[in-house]
Amino acid sequence: MCHQTVGLVAGELERRGIATTSVSVLREITGKVRTPRALFADFPLGAPLGRPHDAELQTRILRAAFALLSHPGPPPVLVDFAPGLPQPGSHGRY
Amino acid sequence: MATYRYRALEPVPFGFPTRPLPGARVALVTTGAVYAPGQPPFDDSARGGDVSFREIPSDVDVSTLGIAHKSDAFDQSGFLADRNLGFPLDRLREMAAQGEIKELNQRHLSFMGSITAPGRLLAQTAPAAADLLVADRVDVALLVPL
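The joint structure predicted for all components is written out below.
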């Protein structure tokens, strides 16, 4: 349900001209809701930013989510987080 | 839950940010049901889900945020130990300090994710929340599910 709520709120924001990106831990549901942009991070429900007190991992997930803002589409954009790889956007671009 | 029909965005609204991230104002939206000190918690017993939202001031100490989420669908221990797991405001502050983001919005938004009947969310509270961020001239919103 939380993933549906994220998708629906993202839709309202996009309709008003605010670009959105998001994180998902439930790929199938995010795909069904057709959330405009989502990074699928394969972590347990309740841990979308990976691990508690792991700032480095949390920041890598955020950078990867923000990198989707430059994804050409078409929407919905649903991309897997690759933990071991450098992410586009990790140098302040996106 | 196997028979639940998820709402789908059709067509999918989709636009690009007006500014690159180092020039952008960013707002955080969580469905982790966090609330700031002094704010009412969410109503976990509301039929179909509590569709209200809280405005979280950007200068809040994240460790003081309450969590009203009583979902037993997941282990909450990580989120309780580190609110950044579902409300990564400290990480966004660091990115802003590094210049990766221009600035954080003055407020961020918190919903309770466990909404099974999203009619009023779609008709009322999500539009109201989006209007606030438009008024704040937010360029980019980051949404995190819990």
